[in-house]
Amino acid sequence: MRTAIATVCLSGTLTKKIEAIAAAGFKGIEIFENDLLSFNGSPKDARRMIEGLGLATITFQPFRDFEGMPEPQRSKVFARAERKFDVMEELGCDLLMVCSNVSPDSLGGIDRAAADFHELGERAAKRGMRVGFEALSWGRHIHDYRDAWEVVRRANHPAVGLVLDSFHILARGTDLSAIRSIPPERIFLVQMADAPKLDMDYLSWSRHYRCFPGQGELPIDEFMLALHATGFSGLLSLEIFNDRFRAGSTRSVAIDGQRSLIVMLDELRRQTGAAFPGLQDIPPKAASSGVEFIEFAVDERSAVGFEKTLSGLGFRKAGIHRSKAVTRWCQGDINIVVNADKEGYAHSFNITHGTSVCALALRVNDAPGMLKRAVMLLDQPFQQPVGPGEMNIPAVRGLGGSLLYFVDHKTGLDRLWEVDFEPLEGGDFAGAGLTMVDHVSQSMHYEEMLTWLLFYTSLLEVQKTPVQTVIDPGGVVQSQAIETRDGSLCLILNASQSRQTLSSRFLHDLFGSGVQHIALATGNIFATVEHLKANGIELLPIPENYYGDLEVRTDLSADDVERLRAGNILYDREDSAEYLQVYTKTMEGGFFFEIVERRNYQGYGAVNAPIRLASQTRLASAALPSGI
Ligand SMILES: O=C(O)c1ccc(O)c(O)c1
Ligand SMILES: [Mg+2]
């Protein structure tokens, strides 16, 4: 299969799009007519630029409202097509993509449409060109690929072929089995797009919410299996209309596109054993069994307060790095690394972002394999000098320039605590009952949410939950969880279009995207809260009204509710599963901890999020100097 991407996927001018497409390693490009119309140069100039960067224009589109027109429009439509062929000649492109007619003037009739395509095929062939027909899911008469195929079949012309677009087919839930019997040489182009499942009209859904394969919820795998069954080995092109992509980074969205194709074809190869020329063998996604450590970048001044908070939360200093100003803090299965070194990566991270999470380390089954997969998926590997005898832990650049480390047992990387750290004796230290990292919540720009979703899901054996909408006093926040099947690793991605939400203000304060909070698990939240209070940890106050409502909303006894109220603990129940959560007050820089007790509960307490966000907003406003 030859892969490509449509210019419509990206933000920027045509020049910028073409450069980003070439830089992301594509060889083919679909030119959208509007991009050419707004280009300040001739189609020949565009061709020079495209070919100069090693790209080929695989199609020119869309040609609209063509088939089934009555006269006099019919003659005009053919004249318009000839003009497009002129442009294509200059552009160096031989395939015109025609999408099904949406005009109220168009007449139905499969034979009329087939006759029009036969004539268009004749005209195209005279000029050494071809035309492909795509059924738009909102086409007036033709909105089903099976009807488009029947038109192409009856047109019976070698220069007329079919275009399959996964969005139009999967959005309507059209049966895929008929794809399997289409002769592959009759499929001139396959356009790929995924989308979240939304209940809206096809046109709006398609024009604003498409996304790259794997970023949405449509059964792309089933589509690819049906396509594969035909023996198709032609052009496969990404065609995404997405408001966030149009506003996002041209370069990184182009890379996301390439990454999504590599992952999709690799998945197909694993399922079918098929070989795709040009697609290298990639190590499989990593199984992760959770977070090995979370590293904070601090400076000398903030280290004192931060370490005091860790002690208050029941952590004990368990090791001192052999060559750097770095300490290890432990409790249960949780490792927190506090990096106050005056050199290196964490130091520069601290200068830019202040006290913040500069790295996450994941426990994986095969760390070197993971790094190899990441590099093959166009992630950025990271390497910094290590001291003699110290471990070199594989890492890639993650969210907001932070690092994502991979630690495994297989290659002994899990020995890092003995190798790199001087252990400190714990004595009879009693913690606060915290056992493990429950989830890590990251806030990011709205436009980059799908980028990071793909980053994690392309590397790890994880599933994603549907996007949830959370109400913050300053606007709406979109939240999506990525989790392993056994729940040992849970990452939450948050983003908001409003600048007033806590999540957006965090981005502003941190100068970038990053980890906004970490949830730690306890087996007994009441005991943990007692411990935290005794240690002087300040918890986020929750309004009385919340507890008044809990009493009527649940069957908790008045005593139970009183215990929750006294501890500022939030509560949720799903059938017999229960979730109890409490938050620390927000620290300098906007970071906070959450403590959770899960009783067979799967989610993240979304019902409580607006209450928590309102309390945090209230405290943040109270902290501002008066008059602001
Ligand atoms: O939204 C559209 O009009 C449109 C245009 C061209 C396509 O290939 C498509 O799938 C949709
Ligand atoms: Mg299309």
Automatic annotation (TrEMBL):
The record, for CDD domains, names: HPPD_N_like
Has UniProt tagged this entry with the keyword S-adenosyl-L-methionine? no
Which pathway is this protein engaged in? Answer: Aromatic compound metabolism; 3,4-dihydroxybenzoate biosynthesis
Question: From what organism does this protein derive?
Answer: Microvirga makkahensis
List, separated by semicolons, the cofactors it needs: a divalent metal cation
* Stated role: Catalyzes the conversion of 3-dehydroshikimate to protocatechuate (3,4-dihydroxybenzoate), a common intermediate of quinate and shikimate degradation pathways.
The reaction(s) catalysed by this protein are: 3-dehydroshikimate = 3,4-dihydroxybenzoate + H2O
- Could you tell me what this protein is called? 3-dehydroshikimate dehydratase
User: Domain named VOC: which ranges?
Assistant: 290-409, 436-585
Q: Which GO terms describe its biological process?
A: 3,4-dihydroxybenzoate biosynthetic process
Which GO molecular function entries does the Swiss-Prot or TrEMBL record give?
Answer: 3-dehydroshikimate dehydratase activity; metal ion binding
